[in-house]
Specification:
Shape: globular
Helix content: 25-40%
Number of strands: 9
Distance between the termini: 23 Å
Strand order of the largest sheet: 7-1-2-6-3-5-4-8-9
CATH superfamily: DHBP synthase
CATH topology: DHBP synthase
Number of domains: 1
Oligomer: single chain
Order of helices and strands: HEEHEHEHEHEHEEE
CATH architecture: Alpha-Beta Complex
Structural class: alpha/beta
Radius of gyration: 15 Å
Number of helices: 6
Length: 187
């Protein structure tokens, strides 16, 4: 279920040019961009009408793409994370000291996931990096589950919509705190 070559190429170019894309994930469409492009991340927050203090999630196709954003973890904790990936578990981890506040919401932690969704993973792989991933909707509205819903809710605010179907989850991914294992959002 990987996207056709042309839409993937357009999405990668959009990310590299500092744009905002929408793409299918495990349960909903996500909004994404290069996490190190502050203007793009702030644009996503503006589109969503989301408080910057909430921070964002980063998704990746492999653990090596999120490691630069993470502080060192105890070996057992890292094994627990990696055993759940790729998969629908988002972990809140200590952020590396250089991670910008526009990703963390000013906290010392960051949410990360290595996705098993074929389109989202292919997108991260094609971009060669982790991507911002936050639900494609305005705060308080239901997340979009199709590209058409993204266009209907957000209009032309999104530069590129990657075609594809969301995964089989009926609710957004579970979020857990890495150091304690505490469930912060049930999946």
């Amino acid at each position: 279920m990987t996207p056709a070559l042309w839409p993937m190429k357009r999405a990668v170019e959009t990310v590299r040019d500092g744009g905002v894309i929408a793409y299918p994930t495990e349960a909903v469409f996500g909004l994404g961009c290069d996490p190190l492009e502050e203007d793009a991340v702030r644009r996503i927050l503006h589109i969503k009408q989301r408080d910057a203090a909430k921070g964002v999630i980063l998704i990746a196709s492999r653990v090596e793409q999120v490691l630069p954003f993470m502080a060192a973890l105890p070996a057992e904790t890292r094994r627990t994370l990696e055993a759940s990936w790729p998969g629908p578990v988002t972990w809140v981890v200590p952020a590396a000291s250089h991670v910008p506040a526009w990703l963390t919401g000013g906290r010392s932690t960051l949410a990360v996931r290595v996705t098993a969704h074929p389109v989202a993973a292919a997108l991260c792989e094609a971009c060669g990096m982790a991507l911002v991933s936050t639900s494609a909707n305005r705060s308080g509205q239901a997340p979009a589950r199709t590209g058409l819903m993204v266009r209907t809710q957000l209009g032309d605010a999104v530069d590129c919509i990657v075609p594809g179907s969301v995964g089989g989850l009926s609710k957004p991914t579970e979020i857990r705190e890495a150091l304690t294992g505490k469930v912060l959002r049930a999946g």
